[in-house]
């Protein structure tokens, strides 16, 4: 890749950013370790009535199976789908091997999850002249040493690198060069933007915003009025701008867990018991990391898939497991428990008064808590 310059002429910094994303990581590990699964549609997760897909192989994705999809829906789309229970210890061990490969090229590694990371290779340790060659070599090392494939996005900022990594999956790489960012984004549907979820997509579509070009046409004041603090972010990414650095020690802003239940929770006693187990798990993390927050958030998903969240913030930290539990109970009481069944509950603590660094990058959604 030629020398990087930003599309923002006022920015002097020149960066070469990679986004490395493992291909169908959990499912690929299972297919690697069990040859009988190769070439077949595989879902990592629990196939019971209330199970959820944690990851799907590419053979399963052909049928429309995706992560976070209820297992019943996945089986309707692909009746031959093979469910495999997740092995998170194995996935973490392989993720650590991959991070060790990254570290041979740069100290600037920011894990986003077990299966993806940002790397700043502006000054790589092997003096490889281009980011394209660096990405190609890293991907070959991953394949040779783990038997798994990875895709890479290459660009001059994190947002564009993330978008680029999805363009040549699986087992490929894609470059968005200086001067190409805005043109690439212009034709991209807004639901392909990292960080723009279904609800925001619907709101944008309602405002006539369907593509990056539509987003560029919106004034900053209008975006702020409709989207609040996120308005400026949408304004800048539509122009291919993102000044976030690759940060090796990510700042942990919250700790939470959630669970989908095999049977709907219909009574307060059952909800209280479930909240107790969730609060216990979150509190274990808080104590282990000496990180105590001021805000508690509960997430409730009803049997009809309606989902709500409720939060409570206080001046002082939540100082005990019992306090976390009682606040969680209070918030769920405000969520009309008993009017209809609850299929999922979640508890999160945030608002840490001290910054909590998460250097190992191993924080994952709690797929291992999904119903058996």
Automatic annotation (TrEMBL):
<keyword id="KW-0235">DNA replication</keyword>
<dbReference type="Pfam" id="PF00817">
    <property type="entry name" value="IMS"/>
</dbReference>
<dbReference type="GO" id="GO:0005829">
    <property type="term" value="C:cytosol"/>
</dbReference>
<dbReference type="GO" id="GO:0003887">
    <property type="term" value="F:DNA-directed DNA polymerase activity"/>
</dbReference>
<dbReference type="GO" id="GO:0042276">
    <property type="term" value="P:error-prone translesion synthesis"/>
</dbReference>
<keyword id="KW-0460">Magnesium</keyword>
<keyword id="KW-0234">DNA repair</keyword>
<dbReference type="InterPro" id="IPR050116">
    <property type="entry name" value="DNA_polymerase-Y"/>
</dbReference>
<dbReference type="Pfam" id="PF11799">
    <property type="entry name" value="IMS_C"/>
</dbReference>
<protein>
    <recommendedName>
        <fullName>DNA polymerase IV</fullName>
        <ecNumber>2.7.7.7</ecNumber>
    </recommendedName>
</protein>
<dbReference type="GO" id="GO:0003684">
    <property type="term" value="F:damaged DNA binding"/>
</dbReference>
<feature type="binding site">
    <location>
        <position position="115"/>
    </location>
    <ligand>
        <name>Mg(2+)</name>
    </ligand>
</feature>
<dbReference type="GO" id="GO:0009432">
    <property type="term" value="P:SOS response"/>
</dbReference>
<keyword id="KW-0515">Mutator protein</keyword>
<keyword id="KW-0238">DNA-binding</keyword>
<comment type="similarity">
    <text>Belongs to the DNA polymerase type-Y family.</text>
</comment>
<dbReference type="GO" id="GO:0006261">
    <property type="term" value="P:DNA-templated DNA replication"/>
</dbReference>
<dbReference type="GO" id="GO:0000287">
    <property type="term" value="F:magnesium ion binding"/>
</dbReference>
<dbReference type="InterPro" id="IPR024728">
    <property type="entry name" value="PolY_HhH_motif"/>
</dbReference>
<keyword id="KW-0479">Metal-binding</keyword>
<feature type="binding site">
    <location>
        <position position="21"/>
    </location>
    <ligand>
        <name>Mg(2+)</name>
    </ligand>
</feature>
<dbReference type="InterPro" id="IPR043502">
    <property type="entry name" value="DNA/RNA_pol_sf"/>
</dbReference>
<keyword id="KW-0548">Nucleotidyltransferase</keyword>
<keyword id="KW-0239">DNA-directed DNA polymerase</keyword>
<dbReference type="Pfam" id="PF11798">
    <property type="entry name" value="IMS_HHH"/>
</dbReference>
<feature type="active site">
    <location>
        <position position="116"/>
    </location>
</feature>
<dbReference type="InterPro" id="IPR017961">
    <property type="entry name" value="DNA_pol_Y-fam_little_finger"/>
</dbReference>
<dbReference type="InterPro" id="IPR022880">
    <property type="entry name" value="DNApol_IV"/>
</dbReference>
<comment type="subunit">
    <text>Monomer.</text>
</comment>
<keyword id="KW-0808">Transferase</keyword>
<keyword id="KW-0963">Cytoplasm</keyword>
<dbReference type="GO" id="GO:0006281">
    <property type="term" value="P:DNA repair"/>
</dbReference>
<dbReference type="InterPro" id="IPR043128">
    <property type="entry name" value="Rev_trsase/Diguanyl_cyclase"/>
</dbReference>
<keyword id="KW-0227">DNA damage</keyword>
<feature type="domain" description="UmuC">
    <location>
        <begin position="17"/>
        <end position="197"/>
    </location>
</feature>
<feature type="site" description="Substrate discrimination">
    <location>
        <position position="26"/>
    </location>
</feature>
<comment type="function">
    <text>Poorly processive, error-prone DNA polymerase involved in untargeted mutagenesis. Copies undamaged DNA at stalled replication forks, which arise in vivo from mismatched or misaligned primer ends. These misaligned primers can be extended by PolIV. Exhibits no 3'-5' exonuclease (proofreading) activity. May be involved in translesional synthesis, in conjunction with the beta clamp from PolIII.</text>
</comment>
<dbReference type="InterPro" id="IPR001126">
    <property type="entry name" value="UmuC"/>
</dbReference>
<dbReference type="InterPro" id="IPR036775">
    <property type="entry name" value="DNA_pol_Y-fam_lit_finger_sf"/>
</dbReference>
């Amino acid at each position: 890749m030629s020398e990087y310059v930003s599309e923002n002429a006022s920015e002097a910094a020149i960066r070469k950013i990679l986004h490395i994303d493992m291909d169908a990581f959990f499912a690929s590990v299972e297919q690697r370790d069990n040859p009988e699964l190769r070439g077949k549609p595989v879902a990592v997760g629990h196939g019971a009535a209330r199970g959820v897909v944690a990851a799907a192989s590419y053979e399963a994705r052909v049928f429309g199976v995706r992560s976070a999809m209820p297992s019943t829906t996945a089986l309707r789309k692909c009746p031959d789908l093979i469910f495999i229970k997740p092995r998170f210890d194995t996935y973490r061990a392989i993720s650590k091997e991959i991070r060790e490969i990254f570290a041979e090229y740069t100290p600037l590694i920011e894990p986003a999850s077990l299966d993806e990371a940002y790397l700043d290779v502006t000054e790589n340790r092997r003096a490889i002249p281009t980011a394209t060659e660096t990405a190609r070599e890293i991907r070959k090392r991953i394949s040779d040493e783990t038997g798994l494939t990875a895709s890479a996005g290459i660009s001059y900022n994190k947002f564009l690198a993330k978008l680029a990594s999805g363009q040549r999956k699986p087992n490929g790489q894609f470059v968005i060069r200086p001067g190409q960012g805005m043109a690439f984004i212009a034709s991209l549907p807004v639901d392909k933007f990292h960080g723009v979820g279904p609800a925001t997509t619907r709101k944008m579509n309602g405002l006539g915003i369907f593509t990056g070009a539509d987003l560029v046409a919106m004034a900053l004041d209008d975006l702020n009025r409709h989207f609040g603090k996120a308005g400026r972010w949408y304004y800048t990414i539509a122009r291919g701008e993102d000044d976030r650095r690759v940060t090796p020690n990510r700042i942990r802003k919250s700790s939470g867990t959630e669970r989908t239940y095999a049977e709907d929770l219909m009574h307060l006693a059952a909800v209280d018991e479930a909240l107790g187990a969730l609060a216990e798990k979150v509190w274990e993390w808080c104590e282990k990391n000496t990180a105590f927050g001021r805000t508690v958030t509960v997430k409730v998903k009803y049997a009809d898939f309606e989902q709500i969240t409720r939060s409570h913030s206080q001046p002082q930290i939540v100082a005990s497991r019992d306090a976390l539990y009682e606040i969680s109970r209070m918030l769920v009481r405000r969520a009309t428990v008993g009017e209809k069944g609850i299929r999922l509950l979640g508890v999160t603590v945030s608002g840490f008064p001290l910054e909590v660094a998460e250097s190992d990058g191993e924080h994952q959604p709690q797929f291992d808590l999904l119903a058996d």
